[in-house]
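Two proteins, back to back. First:
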Amino acid sequence: MRRSLSGASMALVPLLSVTVPTSALASTSIYGTVAAASATTSANAAADEQPEGEEEEDLVIIDEGEEEEPPAEGEDPGGDAGVVDLDLGLDDDNTVDDGAAAEGSGEEALGTEEDQIKAEKGLITVVQRQRMLKKKRFELSPQFGITVNDPYVRHYTIGLDFNYWLTNRMALGVTGTGLIGAKTPRYDNIRFQEGLLLTANRTLWQGSVNFTYNPFYGKIAIFNRALLHWEGGLVVGGGATQTQVIPRYESLHEPFSTVTGGGHFGLVGRFYAPKIDWVSFNFGVRSWVYADKLEPINRGPDSDLIAMGVGDDPALDDPAEAKKASDFQVAFNVTFFLGVSFYLPTTFKYSTPR
């Protein structure tokens, strides 16, 4: 006697002979569990009803595809019946496609060298390169300043610096400054209130050869939006200065001038614009030290000097004679200035990668 199972009953047969893990049973739907239990009960009942002594019946499983008509002559008897096409994501060469081709290689994603440079500029690094490179570049810097150390004579300065940068930190250059000096109100107040005549000089111009060294470099965050790069340095130099006396009796005597030597030292700071490679904004302080000649004390009518036996020397009415009779004294001129620097060539290139 042959018994056959077809249709959905055929799918339940493997469940009878294969031990299913507990975890798999737990995840099986309630319908699959009931169907498996029913199939097991039916099979056990059929085995109990079989009479003793009778041979065990063969159990033949007939697939639904076997109930179809046999293939005609010339046809492939195998066909595609019962074949399940599982798309495992394999390529033609039986290799798994992991999506690498869609994403592309790392080198292709980076693009050209110019794209890489632009991408690097957008990165935020802890230690950044200097904003401005000045090596082998010329610097032309017009300046405007004011003297701050003399309370009786105030000078306004207009100057020009011309430097050549040997490295990013050291430069050689020249400085030329013209000064416009005038007496302050305090000068006249002392003269009329105290009856005193002050001896003072005004500076006409100053020039020197300079050496600049920048040991300081840093950054300032502006409202956490941008970085302002700055640089600080020392300037020392020596040159010439021309001064002119302010006569105590301007209606009687002519002034005389003196050209003398001296030197200066100072501090200079530079701020660099974020996107301009040829401009910086500067500020600084310079202290000029030089030897100067003041008007002789016995030049002009002075009753106090006459009482002291010094008296007026008529020969000193001549400016040349008054200059000869004057002695050199140390003088200072401290100037605070602001300026703008222009660099040539207007562009530069970094020699090392970021």
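And the second protein:
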Amino acid sequence: MADWAINNRDAFTAARPAPSGKKVAIVGSGPAGLTAAGELVKRGHAVTIFEAFHAAGGVLIYGIPEFRLPKDIVQKEVDRLVADGVQIEPNSIIGKTYTLPELRDKFDAVFVAVGAGLPVFMNVPGENLKGVYSANEYLTRVNLMGAYHPDSDTPVLHGQRVAVVGGGNVAMDSVRTARRLGAAESVCVYRRSRTELPARIEEVHHAEQEGVRFEFLTAPVEVLGDEKGWVSGIKCIRMELGEPDASGRRRPIEIPGSEFIFPCEMVVVAIGTRSNPLLTATSPDLRVNKWGYIEIDDDLQTSMPGVFAGGDIVRGAATVILAMGDGKKAAGNIDAYLRGELKAPAAAEGEAPARVAAEVPGAAH
């Protein structure tokens, strides 16, 4: 039914709403931003999306591989929004091209949905060697920039032996992508056991079907390189599980004397992401918690009047569905705000917002 609907848009003849005369800026064109844009334009508001990359879609196009989410599906959704009147401004980095206060001066309301895309690294020796990627960079270059082509402007390495560190869905996307790009051996290195893997069971199953090997209870302690500065392997240590830690999972403990070397030409680090401070650092009135995530109240309002936020920049790294839910809720609340039915946030009156991202979600490692 959904496939039919997306290919037969002319069958839907919903009347366009009367223009409200209000303008809304959306920062980020990922699942939260696109969902909010679709809901707001239905209510007659003029919507402009500011996207840092050259193409709209956010994590849907740069993070999720083609074999899991075909890009033409995302593009059809973007095209539908544009046909409905949504404007998209690509190559616009909020915090650099414009600041959030500048946007707020030009628009009646702003929804911040920039995600949390700053990579987390292992902080082990050798991590700056050539051939080490963050999963964010690796997947973005492959999915968005076509870096799998040898003549690409930003080609990625095609290692014969690739180690992906981490155990979440992003790690599965990375290790499966490496396999598709010709790696003879694509290995997922995870410091806990299979039971604690945060990745979806079906993603793990598909990876194994495709020939991915898992090294459980294994943690890298050093990335090794040759005399020219290229990755030649990773030094690892075997782990055993102790008592549960703050995440509820059993804490991995090193087994002394169990070090070994896994030869490889490429390492992809997929142990999590965190908030990028570029936007928040240029918005002094915007409250963030100690991890840099934006604080909101129950209506998704921030400490800046007329500025709302949702998705990973509030929650920490989460799911597409949760981000879409935030986008839909934010759109309803922004509409109420523009109609004068929603009061200014408590923080604007000197109080802390009622709701914040409680904690950084457990990184996938």
